[in-house]
Amino acid sequence: MKRLVRLACSVLFGAGIAAMVGCSHMPGGVAPSNIPLDGREYEEIGLVNTTDSRVLLFGLIPISGSNSIRNAMRACIIGKRADALIDITVESYSQFWILFTRDVIKVEGVAIRFKRDKSTK
């Protein structure tokens, strides 16, 4: 009988721990570009993607920097030395651990560089 009680307690403890962890995924949005292109000619540099995240203690107390779409897009542009992004998709997800929650924003797109007018050089 004692063995059965121990087994039941172990199963309940394991189920309780498993209930405290998880993940959720939320679609974000789609945009043709992050700035108006105004008919300007450009060259595609390549695909880019990055994430920006923050960590919360007990899901409430921030213990790292904030996450934002703006920071993630800026990182994509700076990383490729680009002028802008096109074909942008944004999504976010959260990971729930026993003590911590991690909120992540993911940005993907195509980095572009505007062609310079030869008469202005």
User: What is the highest CATH level, the class?
Assistant: Alpha Beta
Order of helices and strands: HEEEHEE
Structural class category: alpha+beta
**Mean pLDDT value:** 86
For the termini, the CA-CA separation is 88 Å
Q: What is the number of helical segments per DSSP (H or I, 4+ residues)? A: 2
Largest sheet: 5 strands, antiparallel
Characterize the structure shown.
The protein is α+β, with helices and mostly antiparallel strands. It has a single domain, classed as Translation Initiation Factor IF3. The protein has two helices and five strands; from the N terminus they run αβββαββ. The protein has helices at 2-19, 69-80, and strands at 22-33, 42-57, 61-62, 84-96, 100-114. A five-stranded antiparallel beta sheet has the order 1-4-5-2-3. The termini are far apart. The model has no long low-confidence stretch (mean pLDDT 86).
